[in-house]
Structures are given as C-alpha cells and as structure tokens.
C-alpha cells in the first residue's frame, strides 16, 4: 500500500516543481482594459507590440469602475498602462493615481486632433473619440427609434437593457430621464428618477460591459440598448439587423484615454506603447477593422469605412460634452436611487 | 425490503436524475458544435472550441494558476492540518474544546465574507502580492476539510500501537511516519482530493483576490462568459468534467467512493 | 508534557486560522460600527442605514426567499430520491450515488452556465415550447428569481441526496420490519418510523443548503443579473464597484449573523428532535 502513496506524493511533487517554474527572464507588461474586441486587439496591437518590446503582455480586464477601484486598492501599482473612458480617467486623476505623461517620448501626439492631444491637462491623451447613443434590432423594433424619448414607448416592454449606473454611459441614462421629464437631473434628481421608474417595465436587465450587452442582443434577450458606438461593428457581426438610431435630440461625446499609473514598473515601455497605439498605421487598422474611431489626422478612411465612426473635425465638434466635475460626484449619490429603481 | 417502492416514486426519481444529468449532457453536446454560438443539438461536429481553450492565453494562464493554487494550497493545508488533526485525536483531553470549533470556522464563515476580509487585510493593508494572497485564501479554504477527513480516519486508529512502538525505543517522529501515516493513508488521499476539488471550483474567495495577469479558471470563465457567449465555455466545462471523472475513477479504484459522500 | 506536544502540533493551524481568518473577519465586523455620535442610533447607525433603505431590505428579503425556496424544494426532491436510492439493490445504489456525486464535483460556474443555455430566449426550453406550439413567442426566463431558484435547486439537490441516503441507510431495518409486521402500511411506516428518525439528517441537509444558497455569488450573478441582486452579489457590488467598504462590511456582518444564527438554532433543534439521542 505504501508505494501507491509514495508515487502519489512523488507525482504531485513533480507537478509542483513543474508549475513553480514560471516563465522567467522576459519583462511582463501589464495592460488594463475592458477585454472588449480582445481578438482583434491581440492581432493589431498586442502581437506586434510584444515583438517590438521583447516583453510578455498580460492583462487586467473589467469595466472602468472596477479597474479604477482595484488600481486604487493597490495604490496605483500593478498595471503599466490603463485604458479608460474620460469620465473614469478624470476620477482616477483626482485620486492621484496617474503620473503626468512625458510628451517628448510620444511624438505621435502631435498628429492628433487638438481635442485628443491633452484632454485632461498633463495626463494621458485620448486614442479614440466616440459617442453614446441608442442601438436597436430593426427586425424586432418598428417604427425605428429616432429620439431618446422612444425608450419609454409601450411596445418596447421587456426589450431594453440599459448600462448600469456604474458604467460610463449609466449616468447619461439619468440625464436623459431628466430631459424626458423636462428637468436638469443635477438640479431635480427626484423628477429624473421618477421618469426612470416609468422606464422599468421596458428593462430586462442592465449590463456592465459592452460584451455583456452584445451577448444580450445575440441571445435575443433584448432588442434595444444604449451604448457607445465602438460596440456597433461587433454588434452587427452578431446580429446583422442592428441599427444605430439617428437621434433628433443629439448624441453624447466620449473620449477614451490612455494613462500611466503612478506605480507602473515599465514607464518607458508604457510611453512606447502609447506612442505605438497613436501611430497613424495602428489607428488606420483599428478604424478599418471596426475597433475604434481614429483621432490621428493622418488616417484616411473611405466614406463607407467612416460611416460607423465619429470621423472628421466637423462631426467631432457637433457632439454634446459632459461636465464630469458635476457628474462624477453625482454618480455616487445616484447609485442607491438607481438600485432602488431597478433592483426592487 | 427492496420491493414495494411505489412506481410514482420511481418515476419521480428518474425525473430527478434526468434533471441532474441532462444539463451536463447538453453542455457536452454544445462543446462539439461548429457554430460560433451555443446550440444544442450541435449542427455540425468540431473540436475547434477545445483548441480555442489553448489559443486563448488567459485560459492557459488561469488553468496553471488554478492548478498551482489547488496543489500548493492543499499541500500546505495537509502540512499544517495533519499535525492538528493528530493533536486533536491524540491529546484531546489536553487541548481546549474550542479548538475544534476554530478549525471549522473557514467552512462556517461565508466564503464571500472571507474573500472580502482577506482583500482588506492581506492584499490592501499588508500589501501581500496577488499570487500569495490567492494562495493564502485557498489554503485557508481547505484546512477544515483536511482536519475533518484526517480526524475521521484517526478516530478509528488505535493509538496503543503507536505507544507500543515508542516504548520499544522507536523515535516518536519516526513512529508517526512508519506507523500512523500508513494507517491513515486513505484519509489523507481523500482529504487531498476533496480539498483539490474545493479549491479548483472556488469562486467567492478568488473573486476578491485576483489581480492583473493573475486569475483563476472559474473567475476567467465568469469574465469570458460576460464577453463571449461561444462554445469555448462549454468546452472548458467539458474538460473540467473529464478531469472530475478521472479523479472519481482514481478515488473509486483506490478507496471506494463512499469516502467522498462522508 | 502532553499539553505542550498537543499545542506544538496544533499551533500552525491555530495560528493560520487566527491570523488569516479570525482577525481579518473581526476587523471587517469592527468596521461596521460607526462613531457613537454618528446619528440617532449611535454606533449601530450603519445597520440602521442598511435597514432604512427599501432597496437593501428588498435584497435581504429576496435572499431569504430564494434560499428558503431552494431549501424546501431541495429537501422534498432530495428526500424522495434518497428514499428510493436507499432501497435499491446494492449495485444500483452505488451507480445512483456516483451519478449524484458527479454533478457535485463539477464547479458551480459550469452548472450555472448550463442553465444560462437552457433558460435563454433562444435557449432549449423556449425552442422546445415553441416547437410544441405551447407558446407563440419566447418567454423571458433569465434574470428572474425563478431562474436563480431553479439553478440553485439543481446545484444543491445532489448534496441533499447524498446526505439523506446516508441517513436513511442508517435506519435499522428491524424497526421497519417491526412496524410492518405490526400492520403498518408503507405510508404509515414512512411517516411514523422513517421520517422521525430522518429528521436530524433532514435538518443537517437543510442547514447546508440554506447557508450555501444564502451566501452564493456565481449563480445569482449569472442568472439573476443586476436586477435580482442577492446578498452575495450586493456585497460584491458594494466592495468592488461602488467601493463602499463600510457598506460592504455591513452586508458581510449581516450575512455572517444569519449563518451563525441558523447553524446554532438548527443544530440545537436537531439535537432536541433526535429520537435516538439519550
């Protein structure tokens, strides 16, 4: 009987030795992002960058709020470069989690539209500009959606998923609910949440990540959602009948930024990475393959390629900007009311 | 006594078993599908989703981390749990009664509470790196299983044999390894397997302790499920089930399955 | 001498659990008490705040409801199944036990995922119902309390079956024979002999299932979503998304209190109801 125990011990010990021998030597470069469009980003950005830097790239994935919180818990360490929407990078800057960018190390910044070069002072640049609007499955929704107010339509009962309040777009739902009730949500939150309560019968569940929302569409759970435009191409790949609603009451601008946390262990590589992502060549590929709208002025798109994007100086100028100094504090106060509205 | 079970009860039992096994069979079928979305029955057969597991580096990494946590965590738990179980049985009178209560606390306290508390104290306050924090969590999680199962097999061990050996001049430590350990062998193996399975399936503790680049397989599965609804999840599930079947066969061959049911 | 040897052997485990479990959890609970002048409720103000919110009361109540239903359904299904399994011929019994152990060893994420596939709008159940013509449009079944309950019952029935098979097997055969030779029918034997003897086992099973479903995370996360939050998912949201650690600590403390109270009360009850006890 003993030999069996012995061989068991031996085999587990040897497995242990095998597992403990972690890949040594190469630098690990950690990127924090959403995990959205992972396959394409692997091809366009990660693989070429890995070759360039002779490092191994690993990831932390999750939605904006989750990743900022985790970064704060680690006092800004553990991650070398972080992708965030501007609303969350603003919050992280206020918490002192980012270091200023050395623009001398990122020459490609000069090729960007003005608005993307330094959206948040000395901190990171924006690598894409997008908008928040509505999408719907034209096979299941008629007549088409043309206004934010259409969300309240009775024929959309049990068909909508909204972004949770803890995401970038979530607070915009409250702002639009305020507009539906004819008030400014910052001044009269009661009326805004009153309008939101009327929306409840139409909502199936709310989502936390863009990928989760696409799942909800592709499995047929929902037919309408509010989202950022970078989800449009993967959405259409999953459900070809998806349309981006042409809203008469306007769309909201979102800038996605790249930043270097204070605890980054590869600051130089992080600058290289940002420069790489902003280069005309990469921005061109990202736009052509439907990943992100370009902010590099050297990128040239056909009208067809550009149709999904916020593209060109004029269009960028036409979007509503949000005042995050007002919105970020309100978000915390709105969380409980949001829970009470949707979680009862 | 085996006769006279009412047919309605038998029918009900069959239904329960269909309910228990049906979904697992469906996962198995879906994993072989050649479509990019989940369907059952599969429209064409392919193993591409099994290949996909190895192509996605996050799965490769988390499988390794999960195995590391399960094997190392269980080994550490055995190293500190076997002496504790031995002490509890051998010196029961000399030790306070609350000690055995203390040893079951990791089962009593909800896992998610343990995870959150470890995040606060171990990761944030003590600043222990992610990998070690995860290992601490997994070790803690399985200590009670080790102590309970090993205790159960020590309970039927006759300590007078050990005393006889010692009185005949054998060193106490040597006696432990030559007399006691071989007698509780099956208990140790059962403890290892039970702990391994508990650790590899854990969600609630790992949920709070994972960090950049370091995650466990169940947490990665949850993340992947939010991003993609493709058959990769089904094929990972099948691999996990096959692993379970292998473990069960080993258990059955060496000890008999009754030990798991305890 | 014995005391020293005993302590020496037990000390690593004692230290590990004290330092890494007792102290951290105690610190979490310590965090839930506010300053004594924090409000009309003094140091328990954070708890008053918890119960003051209709939403948080709803989350707690929903968790009780779901865990309660899961426990009751699992008990009923588990008892019948275990009764039949325990009376099967030995070869069949061991097969049936293996078939119940197997799902138990498969992870919670995998088993919850199975129900995500089954209950979806384009899932198998909807497709089957559409095919039979029983419904005309797919039903929305995900993200409801029912979905969470079904998946949890699925997860916990095997546990219940195993516990109860063990209990029913230990009931002495002579008792049942005695009862039937005295003229009791199978139903009467079951109600008057088997059931009272099985009560302690039923309580153990019920406590296991109730505490596990009350504190679960993965199943309500996947099948309940953000609109059917339970204590586990709410704790995660408070801690990781809202970054409100004092709030998360209150949720943790309430969960712990419910679990400890359940275990204490039920083990006492089990002891009292055990007819075999002296």
UniProtKB/TrEMBL annotation, chain B:
Location in or out of the cell: Cell inner membrane; Cell membrane
Residues passing through the membrane, by range: 7-32, 67-88, 95-118, 130-147, 188-211, 231-251
InterPro entries according to UniProt: MetI-like, MetI-like_sf
A Pfam family the protein falls into: BPD_transp_1
Membrane topology type: Multi-pass membrane protein
Domain ABC transmembrane type-1 as annotated: residue spans: 63-251
CDD domains: TM_PBP2
Primary site of residence: membrane
Keyword annotations: Cell inner membrane, Cell membrane, Membrane, Transmembrane, Transmembrane helix, Transport
Similarity-based family: Belongs to the binding-protein-dependent transport system permease family.
PANTHER family xrefs: INNER MEMBRANE ABC TRANSPORTER PERMEASE PROTEIN YDCV
Entry protein name: ABC transporter permease
Annotated source species: Pararhodobacter zhoushanensis
């Amino acid at each position: 009987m003993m030999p069996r125990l012995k061989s068991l011990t031996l085999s587990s010990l040897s497995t242990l030795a095998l597992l403990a021998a972690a890949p040594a030597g190469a630098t690990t470069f950690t990127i924090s992002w959403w995990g959205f469009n992972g396959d394409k980003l692997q091809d366009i950005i990660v693989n070429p960058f890995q070759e360039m830097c002779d490092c191994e790239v690993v990831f932390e994935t999750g939605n904006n709020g989750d990743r900022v919180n985790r970064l704060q818990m680690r006092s800004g360490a553990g991650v070398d470069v972080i992708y965030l929407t501007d609303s969350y990078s603003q919050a992280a800057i206020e918490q002192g989690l980012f270091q200023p960018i050395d623009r001398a190390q990122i020459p490609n910044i000069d090729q960007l539209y003005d608005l993307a070069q330094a959206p948040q002072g000395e901190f990171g640049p924006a690598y894409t500009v997008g908008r928040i609007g509505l999408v719907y499955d034209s096979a299941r929704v008629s007549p088409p959606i043309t206004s934010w107010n259409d969300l309240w339509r009775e024929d959309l009962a049990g068909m909508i998923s909204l972004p949770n309040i803890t995401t970038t777009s979530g607070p915009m739902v409250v702002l639009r609910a305020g507009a539906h009730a004819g008030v400014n949500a910052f001044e009269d939150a009661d009326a805004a949440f009153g309008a939101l309560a009327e929306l409840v019968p139409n909502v199936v569940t709310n989502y936390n990540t863009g990928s989760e929302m696409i799942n909800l569409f592709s499995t047929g759970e929902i037919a309408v959602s509010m989202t950022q435009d970078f989800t449009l191409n993967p959405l259409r790949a999953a459900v070809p009948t998806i349309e981006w609603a042409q809203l008469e009451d306007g769309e909201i601008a979102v800038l996605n930024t790249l930043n270097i946390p204070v605890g980054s262990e590869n600051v130089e590589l992080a600058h290289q990475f940002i420069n790489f992502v902003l280069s005309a060549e990469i921005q061109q590929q990202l736009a052509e393959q439907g990943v992100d709208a370009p902010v590099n002025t050297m990128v040239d798109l056909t009208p067809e390629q550009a149709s999904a994007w916020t593209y060109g100086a004029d269009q960028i100028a036409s979007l509503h900007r949000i005042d995050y100094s007002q919105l970020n504090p309100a978000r915390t106060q709105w969380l409980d009311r949001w829970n009470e509205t949707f979680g009862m | 006594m085996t006769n006279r079970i009412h047919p309605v009860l038998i029918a009900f039992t069959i239904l329960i078993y269909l309910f228990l096994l049906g979904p697992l069979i469906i996962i198995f079928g879906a994993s072989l599908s050649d479509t990019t979305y989940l369907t059952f029955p599969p429209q064409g057969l392919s193993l591409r989703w099994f290949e996909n597991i190895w192509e996605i580096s996050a799965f490769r990494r988390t499988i390794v981390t999960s195995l590391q946590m399960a094997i190392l965590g269980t080994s550490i738990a055995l190293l500190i749990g076997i002496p504790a179980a031995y002490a509890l049985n051998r010196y029961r009178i000399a030790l306070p009664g609350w000690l055995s209560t203390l040893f079951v606390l990791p089962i009593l306290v909800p896992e998610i509470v343990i995870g959150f508390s470890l995040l606060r104290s171990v990761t944030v306050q003590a600043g222990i790196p992610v990998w070690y924090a995860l290992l601490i969590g997994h070790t803690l999680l399985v200590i009670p299983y080790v102590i309970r199962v090993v205790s159960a097999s020590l309970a039927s061990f006759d300590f007078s044999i050990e005393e006889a050996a010692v009185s005949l001049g054998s060193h106490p430590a040597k006696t432990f390894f030559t007399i006691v350990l071989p007698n509780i062998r099956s208990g140790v193996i059962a403890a290892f397997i039970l702990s391994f399975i508990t650790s590899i399936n854990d969600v609630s503790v790992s949920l709070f302790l994972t960090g950049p680049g370091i995650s466990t397989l169940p947490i990665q599965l949850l993340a992947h499920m939010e991003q993609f609804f493709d058959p990769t999840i089904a094929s990972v599930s099948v691999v996990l089930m096959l692993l379970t079947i292998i473990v069960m066969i080993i258990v059955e061959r060496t000890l008999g399955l009754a030990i798991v049911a305890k | 001498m014995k005391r020293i040897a005993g302590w020496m052997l037990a000390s690593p485990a004692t230290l590990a659990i004290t330092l890494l479990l007792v102290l951290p959890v105690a610190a979490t609970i310590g965090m839930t008490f506010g300053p004594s002048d924090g409000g009309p409720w003094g140091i328990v103000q954070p708890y008053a705040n918890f119960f003051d919110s209709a939403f948080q009361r709803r989350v707690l109540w929903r968790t009780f409801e779901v865990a309660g239903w899961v426990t009751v359904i699992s008990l009923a299904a588990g008892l019948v199944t275990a009764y039949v399994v325990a009376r099967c011929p030995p070869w069949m019994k061991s097969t049936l036990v293996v078939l119940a152990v197997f799902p138990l060893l498969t992870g919670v994420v995998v088993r919850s995922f199975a129900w995500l596939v089954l209950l979806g709008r384009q899932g198998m159940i909807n497709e089957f119902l559409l095919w039979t013509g029983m419904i005309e449009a797919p039903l929305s079944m995900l993200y409801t309390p029912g979905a969470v309950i079904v998946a949890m019952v699925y997860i916990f029935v095997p546990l219940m079956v195993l516990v109860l098979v063990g209990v029913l097997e230990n009931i002495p055969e002579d008792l049942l024979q005695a009862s039937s030779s005295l003229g009791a029918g199978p139903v009467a034997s079951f109600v008057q002999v088997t059931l009272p003897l099985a009560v302690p086992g039923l309580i153990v099973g019920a406590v296991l299932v109730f505490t596990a479903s009350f504190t679960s995370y993965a199943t309500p996360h996947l099948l309940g979503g953000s609109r059917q939050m339970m204590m586990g998912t709410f704790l995660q949201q408070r801690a990781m998304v809202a970054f409100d650690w004092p709030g998360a600590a209150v949720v943790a403390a309430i969960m712990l209190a419910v679990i400890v109270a359940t275990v204490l009360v039920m083990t006492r009850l089990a002891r009292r109801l055990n007819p075999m006890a002296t």
